[in-house]
Amino acid sequence: MLGDLVNSGRSEAMTTSEPKVCLEIGSRTENVELVQIAVKASLQQLRIDTETSQAIGTAVREAVANAIQHGNGMDPDKQVRVECSFDGDEVVIQVRDQGNGFDPKQVPDPLDPDNLMRPNGRGIFFMKKFMDDIQFSFEPAGGTVVTMRKRVTLQPPAASQEEEDER
Amino acid sequence: MKIAARHSKGITILEPKGKITIGIGDVALRDAVHEAMDAGSENILINLGDVTTIDSSGIGELVSAYTTVTNRGGKLKLANLPPKVQDILQITQLVTVFDVFSDEEEALASFE
Q1: Confidence at residue A166, expressed as pLDDT on a 0 to 100 scale
Q2: CA-to-CA distance for B18 and A24, rounded, in angstroms?
Q3: Which one of A32, A111, A116 has the shortest CB-CB distance to B22?
Q4: Is residue A122 within 8 Å of B92, Cβ to Cβ?
């Protein structure tokens, strides 16, 4: 199943010594779920608390959905590349599409009363809300890269049963 | 996702379960609302108690459903919001738009 969804790429567990998850997917909405599952699994291995992990997962979901829909225009032949890394105190996610780019300043504010009842236009807003920082950059040859950062506090490792017994 | 529908006091109650997200529950929610209206329901209550995740697409479908039902002279209300869904409605300021109730009975009574 995963082979059908992922066009190419690799997914590896993140550790502090080899901090990278890399996925490349075709532009199909069902792949949003796949990316979120892979990123969530990696964050769990880092022992990031559930609330922070969910926040990052929400932002990743929105970024990948935007890349598929608005960046690549749902063209299944265009790829979305997702990289997730960890540098000691923050998680960094990069989502790269093959679209024509856009002007972030032109994105309407979904909290503006005139926009509140619009059915779309909340993706970037969610990304900003759930991450500490997001930046857009545009490749000279085409394609948008969104880089999202969130500071994290790692949970201490679960005590072994032997340690528990000694308490 | 299959969304269960039942009726009480002339109101259609929809019960989505799991995710209302892009490509999964968003279309199912849209279809369920349109089916209810096509069957003659004016007033719809969405019980969100079993929803685990909602994203911007899911929020968009709730907004579309609200607009569609309201434009046809009916009412659409929400009940039993899980904390995560409540948070999303707060963040998006849509709590100021939707009629939100803590439980189904209270919501049903509000239609009277």
Answers
A1: 53
A2: 26
A3: A32
A4: yes
Domain count for chain B, please give it: 1
The per-residue DSSP string of B32-50 comes to HHHHHHHTT---EEEE-TE
Q: Is the ipTM of this complex over 0.85?
A: yes
pTM for the model: 0.87
Q: Which of A110, A116, A119 sits opposite B97 (nearest CB)?
A: A116
pLDDT in tens, B48-89: 999 999 999 999 999 999 999 999 999 999 999 999 999 999
SS3 of A45-64: HCCECHHHHHHHHHHHHHHH
Contact in structure between B49 and B86 (CB atoms under 8 Å): no
User: What residues in A contact B84, CB-CB < 8 Å?
Assistant: 54
- Confidence check: pLDDT of A4 > 50: no
Distance from the Cα of B10 to chain A's closest Cα (Å) equals: 27
* Interface contacts A/B by beta carbons within 8 Å: 52
Domains of chain A: 2-166 (3.30.565.10)
Q: What is the pLDDT of residue A44?
A: 85
- On whether any CB of chain B is under 8 Å from the CB of A30, the answer is yes
- Chain A (112-141) residues lying within 8 Å, Cβ to Cβ, of chain B: 116-120, 122-123, 125-126, 129
> Which CATH number belongs to the domain containing residue B40 in this structure?
3.30.750.24
Q: Is the pLDDT of residue A15 over 70?
A: no
B61 at the A interface (CB within 8 A)?
A: yes
